[in-house]
Design goal:
Largest sheet: 8 strands, parallel, barrel
Mean pLDDT: 75
Number of strands: 12
Distance between the termini: 61 Å
Low-confidence stretches: 1-68, 76-90, 154-159, 163-168, 323-364
Strand content: 5-15%
């Protein structure tokens, strides 16, 4: 007898008992007692969010906010009148979900905080802490760092940390100080940090020596006993892949890290790392961090789902707006790339000498060579049309870009950057915009972009002869 049949049998039997008053339904055998099915996690989150909104609506007469005000405050062009007051809510953030990172058991929020702009030189320590607190109170549990995120550090912050561990690593030092002072449970947040870059040229690469030294130094700066995910930032062509995977396996075996992943690796390099891990019985990577926005789609939409299905490597996307939709006014038009973003990029990040030289060579001529004037004009026109779509939806262009990235089910965690509390709050509200991106709206955006990636048709080898 199926479960549905058992349910019908039990319901009919209960009705007969109620009519005849002959026996109690509790006397039925255990197998015939039908219980309600267990709701999925997503449904439970939606119900909890709805109940929280209902509670806020009931308190609207007491000076609180209504459901409509909470749902729509972040989707307008104007800044919320009291963002800090809304940030103090203890209810679940509408639209926030927790997903497994890759095919591991690690549960991450579908949006994370990329701390590069948060700990930039123009953001004070107090402002950075406010951003971190807002992220935690909103349900974000992923904080992405790098050993190369630099900035000026005060002597008070670094007085108990060895000098060799703090050169040019403000993000890790300050985040560790904030986490220690706030006293949050270690199980409530996930810290990912990237290795490869360093502040000195002799400390770059993926040798076993550099990997182990970088992880141990990051632990000292973060004041943590372990790092959740160590990300290998860029593959090292001068180092054998076997050495890299063996070193990462050793780091995890020592308990310094729980998982490891990659960033800016090609699908071929990820497959090579996975093959070496299987060959030498090492821990496999669980995530790849890659750039993803409306003008950079091929790797994320074509190859990352294949890597996930074949070898279980998940996707953590970054740069939903900073590279693709940076807006600026130059000669009366909107430019695709913001000059200030590159200036901040190379002043707060330790890049290789050739990339830094390219950034400073004749100003930004290298960028002009990369993007042709005709292509720049077409991109500006597309951004104008996307702005009209955002206005139709009642949101900003940045919020539309974030929601569009979240619409992709392959993106398990989208890293957002914020240098102010208001900026992070506005970005979080993009979660509520995702349900509005229905089939017709996505088709309209695709019509504007005209860059949906597709695989080239297969050509028979016989036809090539």
């Amino acid at each position: 007898m199926s479960q549905l049949a058992l349910c019908n049998y039990t319901n009919n039997d209960n009705n007969n008992n109620n009519d005849n008053n002959s026996e109690d339904s509790s006397q039925l055998p255990t197998i015939y007692r039908c219980r309600a099915p267990i709701a999925s996690l997503d449904c439970m989150e939606e119900f909890s969010a709805g109940s929280a909104l209902s509670a806020l609506t009931e308190r609207s007469g007491e000076g609180g906010i209504t459901k409509e005000q909470l749902l729509l405050s972040g989707l307008t062009h104007s800044t919320p009148s009291a963002p800090l007051q809304l940030a103090k809510q203890t209810t679940a953030t509408p639209g926030l979900r927790y997903r497994n990172l890759g095919k591991s058991g690690l549960r991450v929020s579908n949006i994370g905080l990329g701390t590069w702009p948060t700990f930039s030189p123009n953001v004070t320590e107090e402002q950075a802490e406010q951003i971190i607190v807002l992220a935690v109170e909103s349900g974000i549990n992923v904080f992405d760092l790098s050993e190369a995120h630099s900035g000026k550090l005060s002597n008070i912050v670094t007085k108990n940390i060895p000098k060799y561990c703090v050169l040019g690593t403000r993000a890790e030092v300050e985040l560790g100080r904030i986490l220690a002072r706030r006293g949050w449970k270690r199980t409530c947040y996930i810290v990912t940090t990237k290795i490869y870059w360093s502040t000195r040229s002799e400390e770059r690469g993926l040798s076993r020596k550099h990997i182990i030294e970088s992880v141990k130094a990051s632990l000292v700066r973060l004041q943590l006993s372990y790092i959740d995910v160590v990300i290998v930032h860029k593959a090292d062509p001068m180092c054998p892949m076997e050495e890299v995977v063996r070193a990462m396996h050793y780091v995890i075996s020592q308990g310094w890290a729980m998982y490891w992943g990659t960033a800016r690796w090609s699908p071929v390099e990820v497959m090579e790392a996975y093959t070496n891990c299987r060959q030498f019985n090492c821990v496999t990577p669980i995530v790849e961090q890659t750039e993803y926005h409306m003008f950079c789609r091929e790797k994320t939409e074509l190859y990352m789902p294949e890597l996930y299905n074949k070898i279980g490597v998940g996707l953590m996307a970054w740069s939903p707006i900073s590279m693709g939709l940076s807006q600026g006014k130059e000669e009366g038009s909107m430019q695709l790339f913001s000059r200030s973003s590159f200036r901040n990029k190379y002043s707060s990040f330790s890049w290789t000498e050739d990339e830094t030289a390219a950034a400073n060579k004749d100003g930004y001529n290298w960028m002009k060579e990369r993007i042709q004037p005709e292509e720049t004009r077409r991109q500006s026109e597309r951004i104008r049309e996307l702005s009209a779509v955002a206005e139709k939806l009642g949101c900003t262009l940045s919020q539309l870009a974030i929601a569009w990235c979240l619409k992709n089910e392959s993106v398990q965690c989208l890293l957002l950057g914020a240098s102010t509390v208001v900026q992070l709050y506005d970005s979080i509200q993009s979660l509520q915009l995702v349900p509005k991106l229905n089939t017709n709206m996505i088709a309209e955006i695709e019509r504007i972009l005209e860059n949906k990636p597709s695989r080239p048709p297969m050509v028979s080898t016989l036809a090539l002869r």
